[in-house]
Automatic annotation (TrEMBL):
Pfam families in UniProt: DUF2842 (PF11003)
InterPro entries cross-referenced by the UniProt entry: DUF2842 (IPR021265)
Organism: Sulfitobacter porphyrae
Protein name listed in UniProt: DUF2842 domain-containing protein
Spans through the membrane: 12-33, 39-61
Keywords, alphabetical: Membrane, Transmembrane, Transmembrane helix
Domain of life per record: Bacteria
Amino acid sequence: MALSYKARRRWALVILLVGLPLYIVVALNLVALFDRPSILVELAIYVGLGVVWAIPFKFVFKGIGQADPEARDD
């Protein structure tokens, strides 16, 4: 079952306000477990983790910035 536009907007908000900060904390703690690598390797890790978090949620964020396609134009 596909999510409605309003449901996708709500889930996107929850993901951005709750899930993303939690993911950032987990990513920082995960990287802190290892010895500090060179700055370029560390940058590559953070850029990679910054892209990876959004891949599972691509369907939720798709089209959120546009007008509601289900709204009626009266």
